[in-house]
Amino acid sequence: MSKILVTGGAGFIGAHVAKRLLDEGHKVVIIDNFNDYYSPVLKEARIENMLSGYSFELHRINLIDLPTLEKVFLKGKFDKICHLAAQAGVRYSLTRPEVYEESNVKGFLNILECVRRFQVKTLIYASSSSVYGGNTKLPFSESDPVERPLSLYGATKRANELMAYSYHHLFGISTTGLRFFTVYGPFGRPDMALFLFTKAITNDKPIQVFNGGKTKRDFTYIDDIVSGVIAALERSYSYEIINLGRGQSQHLENFITEIEKSLGKKAERELLPLQPGDVLETFADISKAKAMLNYDPKVSIDEGIKKFVDWYNEYAHRLGLDR
């Protein structure tokens, strides 16, 4: 049993990871600032519903508040850090770039400094498939060049990987960066395609389909991502970057078709051009994850979408997220 700090623990991936850790008997401390990038009601619901009945410690603080963060580390005496807090979203970075610098760069630097000062030897952190930018070689491999991200969000996640290497080199901190590929599932973010499409179709409104639906994504179900994160926490590599995806690339149109099947309704499509910062395709080479983490994603697109739609039908109206 370990004592593990999960940053962003009220977030989509963070809450699911915290729940799995608690199920496995670990002591969990959560940090989250419950910001309003999307409805804090959903973040509160993750804590109140997913983590109800568990014993854990919750700190409502911002990672850029270094003095307060240091107090959490001083008290916590953590064995490992699972850093999942970040400002997410590609398109939002076009209008609010300063938020990404604050959360993803300064916030990550403060985590690194606390890991160093309080001698925590293992840090697992979230990176993103966005670091691959406009790479055309598929599938995306960890050995591919990643120096031309197409969004500021992707740039900040690449910066995290470089910062982690510096702290590993200088201070011997073991760090593993996990490049997530389009994670979806129950309690997912309302700015993601699955949530937006489900909400629009349910309300008989058109869905916005960018690039005429010709984009492709490596959609990865939340339970598979969580298994990869837990596997990384159970190991201690000196410095690694590992893809976590489904290992399949799906046309967006196929994704929409599965949503229609689960809802029993057809979508009205509003076809729009490719948006700035978006990429045409993502596709994860997961051979490294299989070899180093025994990673084995199991949930198919049709199964995963049905689970999300079932959740949406139960929770969306109750939380006021269906309007």
Note the run of SSEs as H and E.
Answer: EHEHEHEHHEHEEHEEEHEEHEHH
Give the overall pLDDT as a whole number: 96
Describe the largest sheet.
7 strands, parallel
Bulk shape: globular
SS element count, helices? 11
Q: Could you state the oligomeric state of the chains shown?
A: single chain
CATH structural class: Alpha Beta
List the domain count as a whole number.
Answer: 1
Question: How much helix is in the residues?
Answer: 40-55%
Secondary-structure-based class equals alpha/beta
- Poorly predicted ranges: none
Number of strands: 13
From the N-terminal CA to the C-terminal CA, the straight-line distance is 42 Å
**Estimated radius of gyration:** 19 Å
* Main β-sheet, spatial strand arrangement: 3-2-1-4-5-6-11
Give the percentage of residues in beta strands. 15-25%
- CATH homologous superfamily annotation: NAD(P)-binding Rossmann-like Domain
- At CATH level 3, the topology is Rossmann fold
Second-tier CATH architecture: 3-Layer(aba) Sandwich
Structure description:
The chain is built from eleven helices and 13 strands. It starts with a strand and ends in an 8-residue tail after the last helix. By secondary structure, it is α/β, with parallel strands linked by helices. A seven-stranded parallel beta sheet has the order 3-2-1-4-5-6-11, with helices on both faces. The chain has a single domain (about 5-185, about 220-245, about 280-300), classed as NAD(P)-binding Rossmann-like Domain (Rossmann fold), CATH 3.40.50.
